[in-house]
Amino acid sequence: MEINVSSEIGHLQGVIVHTPGHEVSLVNPELKDELLFDDIIFEDDARGEHLDMLDVFKTAMPADGKVIEILDIFEEVLQKEDARAYFIEQMVKEFPEANLQLVEPELLKLDPKELLVFITQGYLKNSKGFTLHPSPNLLFTRDLAAVVDSGILISRAAKKARLRESLLMETLVQFHPLFDSVRDNAIRISGHQSIEGGDVLVVNKKLVLIGMSERTSFSGLMKGTEGLLKSGVETVLAVDIPKQRSSMHLDTIFTFADRNECIAFPPAIMEQKNNVVALFKDGDSIKTEMRISLQQALEESTGESFNFIKCGGEDRTNQFREQWTDGANVFALAPGIIVGYERNTNTFNTLVDHGYDLMTQFEFVEEYGNKEFSPSNGQKIAISFQGHELCRGRGGARCMTLPISRKPLH
Ligand SMILES: NC(=O)NCCC[C@H](N)C(=O)O
Fold first, then answer.
1. Closest atom, ligand 1, to C-alpha of 252
2. Which residues form the active site (predicted)?
């Protein structure tokens, strides 16, 4: 499969996901805040909801489309002794407080399956009492990297609770053949810098948005921008967003639904002024220019107009409630074909006002499950799926997906 994503909405052909496993059952109420979950979640239902969501993806994708479970490809990588050694070495280095050097010889002896248990659940067989915290946020594969055109930017998580996922992604890119074409030019963020994939939105191959958020530091943003500008992107729009839990990434308050159509959380996007800086290449350095708003910046950079649909509709309380449960975090399966949590009813009603047909996940699978889904030009469908457990991890459909291949837009 060719790695290529040149928009947020091109027909999905390849996506990396993680269906939640036992690691989510290891989040206890005492630890949930440190582990970035807002509640404890029920594993069986979360898994069922996730698998149902994947059914929708598979229904909408072309016959040769691929939904890839990240632990499947990571297990393949861990068959290689040098990959196991590399990953363990990074873990020892990045988590000095965990004293992993004490169990390094045992870690090196683990078979791939046992190592996966250690990575996801923190549990080390035969080493009594030696545990790390689990990795429940692996569910949000979006934040591990961003494919931009035919390159990849590997995230470096801002929070310790997610840093293990960054090492996993780095190891995947280093060792899995899926990433052969992007390995050598991958953009990497080092040291104390941070950037997370939920902050990176690909408008087109020349234009990328990066959120300056709770999770993406200024130097992480600049380093990411430098790499993107070298790789052929012409403009990065840095979007300053509130640094807070409810909007920890740009994609929690802003996503693309169709050509020139987005869903936005009004208070943090539509009602902000002078919150966007355009970054371009200027010889060997980077030039900056202020922009009045995200809408103006998008329109000026593309020469096209954009329609911003309000997450939660007109009512203020609904805007806040539905942003909290990821109403603004939709995932596009194709231009105008989006999925989002069913519970965000006001957002769905607003989408209907903007010409979307509403379908539940079951109606969509029933209608298109036995035939190839080829979206016609101008067709708009908003597909709702149930995620009452999933949404307690504080992420929506876009957060749970790392697209690696989308058809180019014409
Ligand atoms: N792109 C996203 O917004 N991802 C959601 C991440 C949720 C996760 N519990 C976190 O706090 O990192």
1. 3
2. 399
